[in-house]
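fwd from M.: "can u put these together and see what the complex looks like"

so here's what she sent:
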Amino acid sequence: MPQGKPSISKIPAAVQRYGLAVLSVAIALATALLLERYNFRGVEFPLFLMAIAVTVWYAGIGPAILALVLSSLTFNYFFTEPIHTLYVTRSDFPYYVMFILFALLLTWFSAIRRRVERELLQSRDELQREVTVRTQQASLLDLTHDTIFVRDMSDVVTYWNRGAQELYGWAAEEAVGKNSHQLLSTVFPMPIDQIQAELLRTGRWEGELEKTKADGARVVVASRWSLRRDHQERPVAILETNNDITQRKRGEEEVRKLNQELGKRTIELEASNNELEAFAYSISHDLRAPLRHMVGFTELLHKNASSIVDDKGHRYMTMILESAKRMGTLIDDLLAFSRIGRTETRETMVSLEQIVQEIQGEVLQETDGRTINWKVGPLPDLRGDRSMLKLVLVNLVSNAVKFTRTRPQPEIEIGCTEKRKDGVVLFVRDNGVGFDMKYVNKLFGVFQRLHRAEEFEGTGIGLATVQRIIHRHGGRVWAEGLVDSGATFYLSLPTP
Amino acid sequence: MTSLGRILLVEDDPKDTELTLTALEEYNLTNEVVVTADGEQALDYLYCRGKFQTRTNGNPAVLLLDLKLPKVDGLEVLQQVKSDEKLKMIPVVVLTSSREERDMVASYKLGVNAYVVKPVDFHEFVNAIKELGVFWAIINEPPPGSIRKR
C-alpha cells in the first residue's frame, strides 16, 4: 500500500502536497505494473483510486486533481489498448468517464470528511484553550481569601475554593458533591422558599446565615448568592460568597447588651434620682417646719416664762435651741450637698484668682481679727460651674481658716502646681492642726469628722461637697497632712 | 401709721400660724389678718364664696402664701390669682420652708411678688415676718380696691 507522506519538513508545504500526489500515483503505477507481471490484471483501477484517495486525504483537493490527471494519463498509457500511447478508444471512453466521476466523488467525500475533521480539531483546540483559561481563572479564585463556592440547583457543591476550605475546614474533595446546606448545617433567617423565590426573581440574594464548620464551631457569615442561567435562561447554578462576620456580630451583640444594660441602669439611676429629689424636697419642706416650731416655741417660752423657770430650766432651753439649730444646719448642709448632684452644671470660663479674692474678703469675719499670712500664687482660668467651683474653694479656705485658729501665725497658701494641656492641679495648704494620714480615707465622707465638735465646729459635709463638685467636673481630690503640721488639699481639674 | 392693709395668710400648720401671728402681734399688725388653712379656703375668700360669702368686698393688701397646702396647693393658688383679672394685682408673697430651686423658679414664673424662706432661727423668723408685715401692710401702696383699715 502506498504510504507516501514525506517526512522532510524543510520542503515547502505546497511542494510536499503535490509531491505526495505524484508519489502516490507513481507507487500505484509501480504496484500495478509489478502485479501485472505476475498476471494479476484489473487491479490498476482500484490502485489508482486508492492513490487519489490517499492524496485527497493527506494533501487536499489540488494535489488530488493532479493525482487524478496523472492517474488517468498513466492508466491510459500503460493499461488500455493501444498500450504505450495516450490514445483513447471510443469503447474506453465511458470507462474513463466513470473513473473520473468515481475519483471526483471520492475526492468530494474526502474533502467533506476532511473539513469536518478539521473543524472538529479546531473546536477541540478551542475547547482546550478555554479549559486552560478557565482553570487559570479557577485557580485565581483560589487565591482569594474570600469564601466562594458554586452549587447546582439541588444545592450540590460543584466548586469549592481555598477560602471556603479555610473558613469551613472542608477540603474541596470533601465538599464537592455534597449538599451544601446539609454539609454546613445552614440556618436561614427566613424560610428557604422565600430566599429561593427572590433568587429566581432577581438573580441574587444576600443576607446573614449561620453555618457550622467541620470542627463544629458556629460562624455567622454575610452571604451573597448569584444565580447563573444557561443560554436558554434556565437557572443552572448558584455562586455563593461568604464573609465571616462572627467577630463583628459578637461585638455588635456585646454593644447591644451593654447598651441595654446601660439603658436599664440609666432608668434605675433616673428612678433613684427622682426618689432622691422627692426625698430632698420633702426634707426641705417637712423636716424644717417642726424644727422651726421647736425653736420658735422654746424662744417664746424663754421669753414669756423666764420668771418662773430656774437656771437649770434656762440651760435646758438653751440646749434645746442649740440642738435644733444644729439640726437645721445639718439639714441645710445635706440639702445643699444633695443639690450638687441634682442640679445641672452651668459651665462658663471661670477666673479662679477672682474667686479667691472674693473668698478672702468673705472669710475675713471668720478670722476673728487674726492676721492670716496669705500666699496666693497665679491661678488659671478654666471652664466650669462658677458657683460650684466657688463653693469648693470656700469650703477649703474656710477649713484652712478654721484649723489654723490655734496658730499664732496662720499661713494659708493657694496655688497651682501643675498646668498641663489636659488639666491643672490646684492646692490649698495651711499650717493648721493637720490630720493623721491614717484617716485620710474618711476625710471626704459625708458627716465624717476628724475633730470633736468642741475643738472645731462643723457638720462634716464640706469636704464631701468639695469631692462631689470636683467629681462632677471630671476631676479628683486628695489630701496630705500631718498632725500639728498642717494639711494640703489638692484638686485636679481637666481643661478642655 | 396712716392705714393698715388686710393680710390674707394661707397656712395649714397651726403652729406656723401661731408663730406667724405672734410675730405680727409684736408689731401690732394682727387685727387685719385673715387666716385660711388651705388653698381652697383661700380661693373661697378671694372669690367671696363658701363661708366667706358675706364678707366685705375687696382684695387683701397682701397674700402670704405657704406652698405645701392640702387640697389646692400654693402654686395652684398663685396661678389662679395671677391669671384672674380681678385678683392679679394682689401682691403675693410666698412664705415657705423650702429653698428648693424648682419651687422658686415656678413661683417667679407664675409672677410672685416675693419669695421668703422661713428661717429656722426664731429671731430671724420674727424679723422676716415683721418686715413683711410692715412692708406690705403699711409701707407698700396696695393696688386700688384693697381693703384698708383707716
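replying to her w this: Chain A has four domains: 13-124, 144-244, 254-339, 346-494.
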